[in-house]
Design a protein that fits this description.
Blueprint (H helix, E strand, L loop, with lengths): L2 E5 L9 H11 L3 E4 L1 H4 L12 H12 L4 E6 L9 H21 L3 E4 L17 H21 L2 E4 L10 H10 L5 E5 L13 H12 L3 E6 L1 E5 L2 E5 L8 H11 L4 E4 L5 H10 L3
Parallel strand pairs: 1-2, 1-10, 2-3, 3-4, 4-5, 5-6, 6-7, 7-10
Antiparallel strand pairs: 8-9
Helix pairs in contact: 1-3, 3-4, 4-5, 6-7, 7-8
Length: 276
């Protein structure tokens, strides 16, 4: 048995927390990955804005609809080249870690950024120097997680400094903490030439550092012009049954977050998932 979740911002035309709770409930999902700034762009949610009352309000209102905030998102460019901007972003993330418990979240999630101000693919992300710099930043964030008893969920991806299973394993070795977790998104780690090995990749991830995997993202895809393009779940080439079977074997009751499956597609996907 797994706990399926959605990203709050995969529901569109959300005008209030009440909307978010109702539409999540109607989709048949009880768990959410919440990105405040994306779901509610007009609500101040920066470093000085996030607070215990805000967390309690979101937690209480969503609970009225049987919805739990499993993961609090704070996706930042943690290695932003402008150091003043980087510090501002890191402090925002740390504020989210400090307040995540009031939202009822189990972890705060982020990817590992880019050497450019705007996150994009560049081989400059893959140097040893950038890897070590990323490790130092994650070590800082994990220390804040330790202080507040909150898991830091790091999501590897091909465009980022932590871009492979090998780099992820090295990160875990260098940041030795129970409060470092890995959010595994298999689709973020495959390319057109490697998509056929997707199930093997998931198996290898659990064999290598399964004790650190704190959630999984499930994102379907098709190949378009030699690139991996996200599509709603069950509309592409991800091998859902085999991947879910692997997750269940290693991490029963784990959070599995549907990603890039939006609006009406969510209910359709959940119906199929719960009858598999």
């Amino acid at each position: 048995m797994l706990q399926f979740a959605i990203r709050g911002h995969d529901l569109t035309n959300i005008n209030s927390i009440e909307d978010l709770g109702i539409k999540t409930q109607l989709s048949g999902v009880r768990n959410m990955q919440l990105a405040l700034g994306i779901s509610f762009p007009n609500m101040p949610s920066d470093t000085s804005n996030i607070n215990p009352g805000m967390g309690n309000y979101f937690k209480t209102r969503l609970a009225e609809h049987g919805v739990n905030i499993a993961i609090l998102s704070c996706y930042i460019n943690m290695i932003h080249p402008d150091l003043a901007t980087r510090e501002r972003l890191l402090r925002k993330f740390e504020a989210y870690v400090k307040n995540a418990n009031y939202f009822g979240a189990s972890m705060v999630a982020t990817e590992t950024g880019c050497v450019f101000p705007e996150i994009s693919y560049t081989t400059e992300n893959f140097t040893e120097e950038v890897f070590q710099e990323t490790v130092q930043v994650i070590r800082r964030l994990v220390a804040v997680g330790e202080k507040h008893g909150m898991m830091i969920g790091i999501e590897p991806g091909l465009n980022h400094p932590i871009h492979s299973l090998e780099k992820t394993a090295r990160l875990i070795e260098l940041v030795d903490s129970d409060f470092l977790g890995i959010i595994l998104d298999p689709t973020n780690l495959i390319a057109a030439e490697s998509y056929a090995n997707q199930v093997k990749l998931v198996e290898q991830a659990f064999e290598s550092f399964g004790d650190k995997i704190c959630a999984v993202h499930l994102k379907d895809f098709v190949l378009e012009n030699g690139a991996v393009k996200p599509v709603p779940l069950f509309e592409g080439q991800i091998r859902v049954n085999e991947i879910l079977s692997t997750i269940s074997r290693y991490k029963p009751h784990s959070f599995v977050v549907l990603e890039e499956t939006k609006d009406a597609w969510i209910g359709k996907a959940v119906q199929r998932l719960t009858t598999m």
